[in-house]
Amino acid sequence: MERKGILGRKLGMTQVFTKDGKLIPVTVVEVEPNVVTQIKTVETDGYDAIQLGFETKREKLSNKAQKGHLAKANTAPKRFMKEIRGVDVSKYSLGQKLNVEVFEEGEMVDVSGISKGKGFQGVIKRYNQSRGPMGHGSQYHRGVGSLGTMRPMRVFKGKKLPGHMGHEAVTVQNLEVISVIPEENVILIKGNVPGPKKSLVIIKSAIKKSNVKKDKQELVSYETNEVKEDDADVKTAIDDENASQEVNE
Fold this sequence. Notes:
CATH architecture of the largest domain: Beta Barrel
Shape: extended
Number of strands: 12
Structural class: alpha+beta
Number of domains: 2
CATH topology of the largest domain: Elongation Factor Tu (Ef-tu), domain 3
Strand content: 25-35%
Distance between the termini: 77 Å
Strand order of the largest sheet: 1-2-11-10-7-12
Largest sheet: 6 strands, antiparallel, barrel
């Protein structure tokens, strides 16, 4: 099955309710229109892919090579450009704009991003190792522990040691698209996705569950200006009662 994808920015997390009372935690991703800046084919590049440009930046921040590359697509300089492989390139044209409606509600997607950086951390936080006794008589608390045997008198490659944690490429697979809001360029994805707020994320069709599509969730909407008749009657009765009290006073 052909894949599709789009670039966006993670805005944060919230929760929505279905009409049957179910709570769903979702990540809000802002997807401004993406521009197809390059089309790669097997004949010219050895594989099929499209290159997407996302988020316009100032022209002075682009070099001559970037300006020439994007001029072919007749678009402004872009802050991010990423490839989406496995697509049907015959469905795309150079300079074409893709919006959030690329995906439908109920589809399964894989979301990639750069995880939050945690700095230099020990093995307990970094690898979830157990600590030693915390009493003052113990000489082992939060250390690494044994680094190996006496022979071959060296530390083997791959030994879990303290070091930099986070800020690495992470992909969370098989997430459900809960809602697509084209007028706000927003897509709601069930669960959490990698990275801090305002970070770049890449949304692609799920590679493991490409044929799975769940039923559309009927969400509760809180945006309405309509006044129910019962509420209007109650408001009128309260106003009449307040008016009569003022007259009696």
